[in-house]
Hints:
alpha+beta, 5-stranded antiparallel sheet, elongated
Amino acid sequence: MAGAIAAAVIGASLSLNGVLRGWAWLSPVIITVGVVALAMAVLRALRAPAALVTLGGFAALVFILCNTFLRKESIAGFIPGPDTLKQAFVLFDRAGETVYAETAPVAPNTGIVLLICLCLGLVVLLMDTLAVPLALPATSGLGLLAVLVVPATIKPQGAGLAGFLAASAGFILLLGCAQWFAPDARLQSGTGRGQGQLRRSVVLGGAALAVGLVLPLAVPGFDQGTFPVGSRLNPWGPSNGLNPMITLGNSLRTPTGDGRITYATSSSTPVYLRSVTIDRFEGESWAPDDRASSRRLGTGQIVPGYTLPEELVRDLTIIDTGQFTSPYLPVPYTPAAVNGLNGRWSWDPLTLSIRGEDRTSRNQHYTVVSVSPRITAAALTQAGTASPADGELSEEFTQVPGNVPEIVRNTAGTLTTGLRNNFAKALAIQRYLRSAEFTYSLQAPVQGGYDGNGLSVLADFLQQKSGYCVHFASAMAVMARVTGIPSRIAVGYAPGHPTGNNIAVGGRDPLTEFSVDARDAHAWPELYFEGLGWVPFEPTPSRGSVPDYAADAVTPGGSGSNLDEDDIPVPNQTPLPSSSAVAPAPLPGTGTGAGTGIPQAVFVLAGALLAAALLASPRLLRAGIRARRLREVRPPGQAGPAVPPALAWDELQDLARDYGHVPRPSETPRHFAAGLQGSIPSALADDAGMRAVHALTADFERHRYGRPADGGAPGAGARLTADRLSAVRAMLRRGRSWLVRLRADWFPPSLLSRWFRTISAPFRWAGRGAVRAGAFIGNLRKAVRPLRRGN
């Protein structure tokens, strides 16, 4: 049993590939799961109490985690101490930062691997406790489900076929072991092992697996991924907020239109709504730096921490965030004042990002006054670049990461060789990224394993030359810094599209209203030019809008706005090599069913057949239970085949339950037979049927209550038993309404009762445990009361 549980958990953990990058994490997982399962198996083999087995497994989990991850801080290399706990919390904080700041696949750092090993070790403890001392092996599968839920809700391709099959095989093995070594003692079969239980577990598990694979084909939305998951089911509901650089790709791949924002602006050019700024490019992933110590409260007057030119363009923008929920406020750049907000809000002088202190952006309606310099190509050509030494700019925006991949440096150097001013360098980088060599794709990063952000991801993107806005913006920002241009990444929303409404503002012409949602989530680079401030660029092909001052970097057909977020390559491209070519994705709602070229009628037919199978499943399961009970077996020491009387008696009781006579646990077999006879009107009673009832009752009484010498009597043959039950069924059906007969055939109450007992078993166990705990506390109080009186 320990081996089955370990195999099931390790098999389920295979689905985490893609959540974590590579396979380096698998070795500590196997060691942790194996040690915990082995420790519990040894304690159980030594006849230790169940509680001590669980405690021993938990101790083994602590020891192996200390030895694997916290050896230097542990006593003797495996015993936890004060320093061990401190370092563990440090690693857990690192794991939390990884979960918050990175997107799958994440680098398997020590903190995240420690957390995964801890969780999987606890899953082993849970499954062992449910399967062995509590005798609920089927319920123990909830532990495997908890493991599979993580990749199913994180990875675009879901848990994957390998992890699902491995977990299913382990679960089937666990069920087989549970039945093989713990047969039903009520059958008194005289053997220590149930006959044929392992084979039945394999057949049942295989059927469940087949249904699990076929069912998604008939459900709308389950149409992509190795193990079809469609757009993935989110048990926490839709995400209406923009989680910077993490869920941006998922928002683009899920064109649901969640988090709709409307705005009306007086600007003559498209408005980008900025939420946060990414300016530190160290590590495996990049996240906003809130700089809590330097933030300032109040949005009535916002002053940037750098010099703006005298000639500024002022615009008014009215924004309604609706259900969009984020700690950061979407505003046009550069905001000078924001009025009408509810709650307390602060802003960063370096990035001008606005964050709520006690509120979120949900249901906010506010007005933004923004100022921006009048930017032209000529002004950018003449502009210089401030350095941190001048006090004009913070060094955070000019620092080049020490671990920049060589491909990034070489590409930046090749593109800017011979160019004398920063604007020409910026145009060269933008022109390269928007050229026919690159394609816009939401799926290529997922399939290639370089989704998200970070320097290692950036190297893969420049090799594959296919990705979405996060990759293009990151590439331009890092290459700009390599060439000496201060840069950062803005995360927010592209301009969106008009709603057709106009908003009247006193003393002004009506403002055109626009709408953006999750499909317009976007990232773009901003480069700093002395005297002009931060200037946005648009290196992502088929996305957003290229500014007029950078329009000469646009390739033919590459400046359009792609509101449907499809993988549309730049027109007139030269063919890419087969290793990096990306096929365009079909438009949402078009093409053949499930995107596989199979006609939609096939899936309609499959859905109809599946629905028919589901309706017929109670009848089929009831027939299967009846056939299993009436199967002839060869009892030990007997020459002829027979049907165990206990199984024939179970079938008789279920047959009576299906037709309205519910047996009571307190009645004896003879009382049950008398009650069954009394429930049938005398005019409908049948001699053959009643003789069959009394014969089955007599067989069961001899089997259950007879002397040991007679207790092993084999009972009647299968044919005779089946004839007796058929006679009883014919008697019960005689005179019944069609509704009763329909219910007994297609929705048998005995089967529904069996399901209810199975589902409610954990709750009954919990209730009995609570009653016993209450009785124990009551007895303890009674025992202590005389001592208190004596005191």
